[in-house]
TrEMBL record:
Family: Belongs to the trans-sulfuration enzymes family.
Biological process according to GO: L-cysteine catabolic process to pyruvate; methionine biosynthetic process; transsulfuration
Species whose genome carries this gene: Vibrio caribbeanicus ATCC BAA-2122
Keywords associated with the record: Amino-acid biosynthesis, Cytoplasm, Lyase, Methionine biosynthesis, Pyridoxal phosphate
SUPFAM superfamilies documented for this protein: PLP-dependent transferases
Residues recorded as bearing N6-(pyridoxal phosphate)lysine in the entry: K207
Protein name: cysteine-S-conjugate beta-lyase
Amino acid sequence: MSEHNKTKLVSVGRKRKWTHGVVNPPVQRASTVVFNTVAEKQSAAINRTNQTLFYGRRGTHTHFALQDAMAQIENGAGCALYPCGTAAITSAILSFVKSGDHILMVDTCYEPTRDFCNNILKNLGVETTYFSPTIGQDIEQHIRPNTRLLFLESPGSITMEVQDVPTLSKIAHQHDLIVMLDNTWAAGVNFEALKYGVDISIQAATKYIVGHSDVMLGTAVANEKYWEQLREHSYLLGQCVSADDAYLGLRGIRTLDIRLRQHAENSLTIANWLTSRPEVDHVRHPELPSCPGHEFFKRDFKGGNGLFSFVLKTSYPKATNAFLDTLQHFSMGYSWGGFESLVLANEPKSFNSLRTIANPNFKGTLIRVHIGLEDVDDLIADLTAAFEKYNEVLD
Ligand SMILES: *Cc1c(COP(=O)(O)O)cnc(C)c1O
């Protein structure tokens, strides 16, 4: 597709064969697909992996439209759908490892990804080595004869380190590894994973694709080399999604560009404001030089969004709690990517279990915010009031 990104997001997945003449592909709910003749049934069986109605678990036109859309957005050969981002991560890994294999996992991965490696993969006889998100070329030292897979997440969860994905992918491919990336932060649009050497780009579509905090959904877009195995093994693992949720994923795509731009504008304004607050040690926003890997963000990313962290000078949980309880526009919640602002706090000792080798050893509390689509002045006023309460408790 040669269209600009905005045009693409409006038009993908809207072929007439999926929309049946209206603007959006209708929700086609189905378990059973029925055939009137033996020839019809045989033809469906032959074409069942090629966007042809066969059986509900293989998808309906609503699913095919979303798969089409995501594969085009991320420039892949195909897109597998999962009931959540975690299912996309675990199924993509399980589709390519066997007992005796070894995988390389970035130390700043999403917490359930780590727990999956340390429990389920370990029990299956697959060993995980964690590496620093800033390792660069030295990744080669961790590659063994039985290493199968390199798993990246950029920026890293909570601490936001941006990775040198092209360098890591290049070295991994020299050793015939599969490269997977949790590309949730960039929503598949602000970092073109497959162009930078990633084989499978995974997203918690729960976040920005859906964009309204009301659906769990996962996607994995694979290149030509790995698409068939990803598709078939995920199918064997029983991974499928309701047509209603696929529909809402498609709806989210239409406003993805404009939402991301506004999130990014608001979050950069607030990140800059935070740098001048006396309580703040440093801000971890990929668009600011104080974020590890900022140079890779500048080189590789097309835009930002609403999610970033900042680290306070001290850790004093009572004051942190007062800060959090004072906020009116920021709710506490374990997610992000919706239209609303959210906040979570991590005390320094929490990183002892979240990191194996890249513990940043912060002295102060880390606050992660998701900046929503509210007016940025209201959010700054809210944060100002929360800092006042924070200082009252601290004094
Ligand atoms: C939320 C999230 C996930 C998991 O997505 P779910 O849909 O909640 O399972 C995976 N990776 C990242 C980076 C996330 O933020």
